[in-house]
Amino acid sequence: GSFSNENVKIIQGFQQPFWARLISNSSSIIPIKIVHFPNPITDNLNLNFYNYNVGELVLSIYDYSGRILMKRNISVESGNSIVNLTTLPSGSFLMGLKNDKINYYIKIIKK
Hints:
The protein is mostly beta strands. It is built from 1 helix and 10 strands, in the order E-E-H-E-E-E-E-E-E-E-E. The strands form 3 sheets. A 5-stranded antiparallel beta sheet has the order 3-10-9-6-7, covered by helices on one side. The chain has a 3-stranded antiparallel beta sheet with strand order 4-5-8, with no helix packed on it. Strand 9 (91-98) and strand 10 (102-110) form a beta hairpin. The radius of gyration is 16 Å and the shape is globular.
């Protein structure tokens, strides 16, 4: 259960409400559409960017408790990037993509 008083608020359980807020507030300076597949993921995650052909992004993956499990730079070439996630354990995760033009979050599932 949860507990709160005038000084402290403790919430147990998954961070899904926070994730939903991050995902719904994803934004970019220029109109960019990002398609990711497959989901669930077995080994590699494909990212297709529309209206963003070349650049660098910081990819971050978080578990349900908010711990960062992976953080690396990825390159986008010809509007595509492939991210190897073989070392990621099975489960549900929040993935963020960020640079000076993009602030994008999605939920991913690893088999």
